[in-house]
Amino acid sequence: MSFCKHCIQGVRHEGEPLGKLETIAGVACYVATPTVDYPKDKVVLFLPDVFGIELNNAKLLADDFAKNGFKVVAIDYLNGGSLAADAMNSPSFDFMGWLANHGADQTRPPLDKVIAALKAEGITKFGATGYCFGGRYVFDLAFENIIQCAVVSHPSLLKVPADLEAFFTKSQAPLLINSCEVDQMFPAEAQAKADEIFGDGKFAPGY
């Protein structure tokens, strides 16, 4: 239940975002819509890392999903309090101080508001892709079977094996975990435990 120094390190992607900023249920969102016909009852929820939807990286990734035929709603569940881009790779930034003001009590309600509003518009199926900080919420949404497909990349704030076991028991969503050989938040031991729990066809929805 922590972060590592790499959670606020990275590079900035280059490119011109194609989506647009919208307010949904009072929550700022970046919405990327396919230019071709797409299923109007489905949305991919994009849950960014601590740099939020303002960082170009998040917008360009959302655009890529839209280019592949899925409407994407990237949610500012950080309530306008995402890390500024200049905090990236900064050795002096007080990350734990920031985290203290962005717990579940502050960050989960915006997700619920946007999801409820999208349901009212006719959305019946959700996929979710979460990056670092957002990975925790993909798991939580899957526990409640709010989403029908779950993807996490470098997930943080997970309890292993408890959250993996809860996912296996509670969720009907196929699960994809994107991790790497050196990942302090989801290390090799956690990856092996995930393979043990979900692998070899044991998890019927898909892994």
Average pLDDT metric = 92
C-alpha termini separation = 23 Å
How many beta-strand runs? 7
How many separate helices? 6
How much helix is in the residues?
A: 25-40%
Report the sheet with the most strands, covering strand number, pairing sense and barrel closure: 7 strands, mixed
Poorly predicted regions are 1-12
In what range is the share of β-strand residues? 15-25%
SSE arrangement, N to C: EEEHEHHEHEHEH
Radius of gyration, in Å, reads: 16 Å
Overall geometry:
globular
Summing up helix and strand content along with how strands pair, one would put the structural category as: alpha/beta
Strand order in the sheet with the most strands: 1-2-4-3-5-6-7
Task: Map the helices and strands.
Elements: E1 20-24, E2 27-32, E3 42-47, H1 56-67, E4 72-75, H2 95-100, H3 104-120, E5 125-131, H4 133-143, E6 149-153, H5 162-170, E7 175-178, H6 188-198
Parallel strand pairs: 3-4, 3-5, 5-6, 6-7
Antiparallel strand pairs: 1-2, 2-4
Description:
The protein is an alpha/beta fold. The protein is about 30% helix and about 20% strand. It has 6 helices and 7 strands. It has helices spanning about 55-65, 95-100, 105-120, 135-145, 160-170, 190-200, and strands at about 20-25, 25-30, 40-45, 70-75, 125-130, 150-155, 175-180. A 7-stranded mixed beta sheet has the order 1-2-4-3-5-6-7. Helix 5 links the parallel strand 6 (about 150-155) and strand 7 (about 175-180). The longest helix has 17 residues, at about 105-120. Residues about 1-10 have low confidence and may be disordered.
Considering the chains and any ligands shown, give keywords for the structure.
207 residues, alpha/beta, globular
